[in-house]
Amino acid sequence: MFIEICKSKIHRVTVTGADLQYIGSITIDEDLMDAANMIENEKVQIVNINNGERFETYVIRGKRKSGDIILNGPAARKVVVGDVIIIVSYATIDFEEAKSFEPSIIFPDTETNRLI
Predict the structure, then answer these.
(1) Which residues contact 10 (CB under 8 A, 6 or more apart)?
(2) Assessment of whether the complete model's pTM goes beyond 0.85
(3) What are phi and psi of 5, to 5 degrees?
C-alpha cells in the first residue's frame, strides 16, 4: 500500500512578487529549494496565511540569495505582495517506509526569506 505524505515544507515566507502575465508557477530562491529538498517543476501546494487560500502550482528556480518568492500566472491573483505563505510538497511512498520518513522542513526568516 502507498500513501501520500509531506515530503518538504518551506514554512512562513513572504511573497515578494506577483506576475499575472507570466505562464504560471512559483519562483523560489534556489537556496530555499535546496534546503527544503525541492526541485524545479515539482508540484507544490501553497497555503496563504493572510487569506486562507490553498492552491497548487509548480516550482521554478529563482536566483540564489535573492529571497524571491514570486507567484506567477493565475496564482498571482491568490496573493498580495507581503502575504505570508507556506509551501508544501508531497510524495507517494510505501506505507511502511512512511513510518520512518523524515520530511525536509525549513523555517526561513519571514522578513528576508533567507535561511537562518
Answers:
(1) 28, 32, 36, 38, 86, 87, 106, 108
(2) yes
(3) -130, 165
Domain assignment present for residue 114? The answer is no
Range of the domain at 42: 2-100
Instruction: Give the DSSP letter string of the chain.
Output: -EEEEEEEEEEEEE--EEETTSSSEEEEEHHHHHHTT--TT-EEEEEETTT--EEEEEEEEEPTTS--EEEEGGGGGG--TT-EEEEEEEEEEEHHHHTT---EEE--BTTTTB--
Query: Active-site residues: which are they?
Result: 25, 58
**Per residue in 23-53, pLDDT tens?**
879 999 999 999 999 999 999 999 999 999 9
Determine the distance from the C-alpha atom of residue 42 to the mean position of all C-alpha atoms in its chain, rounded to a whole number: 10
